[in-house]
Structure prediction request, 341 residues.
Amino acid sequence: MTTTTAAPERKATPISAVFARFLSRHSSWIPVFAALGILLLMLIVAEAYFGNFLTPRVISALLLDNAYLFILAVGMTFVILTGGIDLSVGAVMAFTGMLGASMLRDGVPTALVAPIMLGLGALMGLGVGVLVQYFDVQPFIASLAAMFAARGLAFMVSLSSIKVEDPAILWLQSTRLQTGVGGWYITPTGIIALLTVLAGALVLAYTRFGRTIYAIGGSEQSARLMGLPVVRTKLLAYVVSGLCAGLAGVVFTAYTGASYPLNGIGTELDTIAAVVIGGTLLTGGSGYVVGSMIGVFVYGTIKTFISFLGADQSWTRIAIGALLLLFVVVQRLIVARSSRR
Prediction:
């Protein structure tokens, strides 16, 4: 006579336990989830205070108004992940915008102007990379020199504002693609921004170039010893940043309908703040493009909240500074915890 013994039932693992285990193994995601939590909290508080904050019009406008910043944040993420910095993105955006607007005014076809703007941005990024890699100039100094150069070139194009009347460029911003559900909409500039974020995330996650960027940020010396193409990868990281700045020049020109030499002043700091708030370590080696996207949403939500209050926009800077300080402290704690392990 045989007896069968029932197998003990396995208790279902709580979702909280799975999430805690994930974070313990992937501590680099902690700042990203922290940024997401702060974003959700701000949206809830804003809706409770104003009552009309979480509407399709307002949320769609977050992407519309910050499309250029999403693009800049993608390029900045690549550079910061290598342990570098790029202070030239705002000036490069202004220079490419001024040159593009000038060419459009002179009758140059849009199909030629846009690639020229992207190419000039990439070339400026390459120049910064060459200074950093071959002349051993600190990224801060190299990109600062490029910032002054690009800003000066913008003033050389014109000292005054140039209005853009090209239909193709204006179409990027003026077209509202309605979803047909609840009044949500998106513009071509928003689509470009989201595609840039998607492309950056895929490149970092699934290509050798992306994995090498993380390796360089973790330890450049170790990356060299492993035979990884450190020089080429760092150069390409700055090229990506410059290319994104050129693309942001196209998007920002469409957004404003004009170009001005002083456009983008301080934008490089907003971009760095958004990337850091999104969880990318300033020392490099840890961070995600998705986190940078969340950081831009946090930045945009703070600006919109301040506008709803009718307060001075200087409070936006104060709030971003406080959040930046908070996330730098969080990053230091994560690094210290990882070192102990």
User: Anything to note?
Assistant: The radius of gyration is 22 Å.
